[in-house]
Amino acid sequence: MTTVVPVLLLAVAVLGLLAPRLRTMSWLAPTACAAVGVVIGAVPGAAAGDSVRPLLAPLAFIVLAVPMAVMLDHYGLFEELAGLVAGGPRYLGALWVLAAATTAALNLDVAVVLLSPLYVRVADRRGEPRFVVALQPALLSSLASSGLPVSNLTNLIAAAHNHLSVGGFLVHLGPSTVVATAVGWLCYRKGLRRIEAVMPGALPGAAPGPAGAAGPVPPGRTRPRSRTLAVGGGLVVAVVVGFVAAPGVGGQPYEVAAVADVVLLVLTRSAPLRVVPWQSVGTVLGLGVLASAAAEHLGVARALGGSSLAGVARATVVSAAGANVVNNLPALLVALPATGHRASWTLWAVLLGTNVGPLAVPSGSLAVLLWLETVRRLGLPVRDRDFLRVGWWIALPALLASLATLLAVRVALGPGH
C-alpha cells in the first residue's frame, strides 16, 4: 500500500489540476493531496521538506517579480516602450528575437513577467490580435531556455546539483536551443492564421489597464515621456545587472526583485498584492512534494536510460512527458537523483525534455502558468484549451528538432564527454 498511495495521490493531483471546474483553484488538488500524503504517512515529513527546499528561492523570486512587473506597468514604462518597438513591417520577428534573447540571457520567468505586458501594448499599438503577439514570451520561455544556467530554474538547480559549467551548457545544449528557437519561429509564422482563429475575439481595445483598472495606461499623462523611459528603463537595467551579479556575491535574484519592489512602491505609491501568483506557487509546491514521493516507485532510473543514442532519446521523451504531467520543476527533481552528481548525457537529455517539452499543456511549466496569470490580468481571457490548441503543434516539432540536434552533438563529442 505504501508503494501505491504516493502514485495514486500524484495521479489525483494531476487530474484535479486539469479538471475544468477546479481551474479557478488550480492549487487545491496538488496541495490537498500533498497534505493528505503527509498526514497519513505516505509522504514522510522530512522527505516533503527536502523536496520543497530547492523550490523556495525560485518561488520567492516569482512572488516578488510579478508585482514588480505590474508596478512597472503602472509607471507607464511598457506603454512607452511599446511606442518605440511597435513600428516596422517585421516587428514580429524582432519581438521573437527579443523574447529569445531575454529568456536565454536572463531567465524565462523574468522574460514572461517583463515582456508580456509590453507585447500586449505592442499589439494594441499595431491593431493586431493580442493573443498572436502576447503568445511569444510563453513560447520562448521553453524554446530558448536551455542554453545557459541562468536561462531556466531547472538549469540552475541542475547546475548546483551536478556541478555544471556555463561552457558545458553552451556546448551540449546551445545548438539544441538555437534549433528549437528557429523551428518554433517557423511553426509560429506558418500557423499565424491558426493562432488568430483560436481567439478571434481577442482584438485591440478590450484589455483593461494594469491590475484590472479600466482602460489602458495613458502614456505620459502624469510624467514626461523622457522621465518615464529614463527612470523605468534605468531601474530595469539595474535589476538585470543585479540578477546577473547577485549569485557571484552570495545573493539571490529574489533579493534583487525585493529591492526593486521597494523602489517602485515609492514611485507608484501602489502595492499590487492581489496579483501575487499564489496559485502557481501552491501548485508547484504540491506537485513537487508528490512527485518526489512517487519517484522511487516509478522506476525513473530505468526509464531514463543511459548515454547511448537510444538512451538519450528516451530520457528526453520521458522527461518531456513527465514535465507535461507534473510540471517541469517537480519532473526535474524526480529525475535528478538518477543522473548522479556530474555532467552526463542523461542529464543533458533530461534538461532538454523538461525545458522544451512543457509547451504541450499550460501546467507544464511555471513560466506558462505565470504567463496565463499575467495576460488574464491584462484583459486577455486565455483559456487552458486555447493554449492547448497551439502549444503542442509548436512544441512537438521544436522538441524533435532539438532532440535530433542533441543526438548529433552526442555523436560528434562521443559518449564520455
Short structural summary:
The chain has 417 residues and is mostly helical. It has helices at residues 4-18, 28-40, 45-75, 77-85, 91-105, 108-126, 130-143, 153-162, 166-172, 174-190, 192-198, 225-245, 253-268, 278-295, 300-304, 309-326, 328-335, 345-356, 366-377, 384-413.
How are the SSEs placed, and which strands pair?
Blueprint: H1 4-18, H2 28-40, H3 45-75, H4 77-85, H5 91-105, H6 108-126, H7 130-143, H8 153-162, H9 166-172, H10 174-190, H11 192-198, H12 225-245, H13 253-268, H14 278-295, H15 300-304, H16 309-326, H17 328-335, H18 345-356, H19 366-377, H20 384-413
- Mean of pLDDT: 84
How much of the sequence is in beta strands? Answer: under 5%
**Count of helical regions:** 20
Overall geometry: globular
How helical, in percent, are the residues? over 70%
Class inferred from helices and paired strands: mainly alpha
Order of helices and strands: HHHHHHHHHHHHHHHHHHHH
Radius of gyration, whole Å = 21 Å
The overall number of domains is 1
- List low-confidence stretches: 206-221
Largest sheet, in brief, is:
none
Give the termini distance in whole angstroms: 42 Å
